């Protein structure tokens, strides 16, 4: 069974956390499509409900809604798998299908219903970073002055006529 890295996003707070889902809980996601609801009880997050928004496979190719093949090269104008360029630009890109299979390693989820456990806790336990105070300058001992070395006088070259 595969191991999934879950990116869980909260649209209310605009924050995201990462969790790892291992056997046997990962079997729940196999066969699901982008847009399908996921119960939090199935992935050890009681009370939550999620929607699958995307993911990527072991090579890093993104999942795209509407593609039924495991991996396919498509002509993309804008959207998933293409960052853009000039107006009207199209590019052939490789994308994964919308169904989660064994080759998918990352799954993106969006929270639709909050549970009792807080995922996005503010870390109040951490102390704020203290600014470093400039240390008082220590008195420096006067450095010994180096005597300049006597320069050897060079004889000017005589010009030959």
In short:
The protein is mostly beta strands. The protein contains no helices and seven strands.
Protein described:
With 161 residues, the protein is mainly β. It has a domain at 4-113. Helices cover 0% and strands 30% of the residues. It contains no helices and seven strands. The strands form two sheets. Strands 2-1-7-4-3 form a five-stranded mixed sheet, with no helix packed on it. Strands 5-6 form a two-stranded antiparallel ribbon. A hairpin with a 4-residue loop joins strand 1 (4-10) and strand 2 (15-21). It is elongated and about 90 Å long. The mean pLDDT is 83.
Poorly predicted ranges: none
The helix count comes to 0
**Beta-strand proportion:** 25-35%
Radius of gyration: 31 Å
- Mean pLDDT metric: 83
Order of helices and strands: EEEEEEE
What's the total count of β strands? 7
From the structure above, extract its key features:
elongated; 5-stranded mixed β-sheet; two-stranded antiparallel ribbon; mainly beta
In terms of topology, how is this protein built?
Blueprint: E1 4-10, E2 15-21, E3 37-39, E4 49-57, E5 71-76, E6 91-96, E7 104-113
Parallel strand pairs: 1-7
Antiparallel strand pairs: 1-2, 3-4, 4-7, 5-6
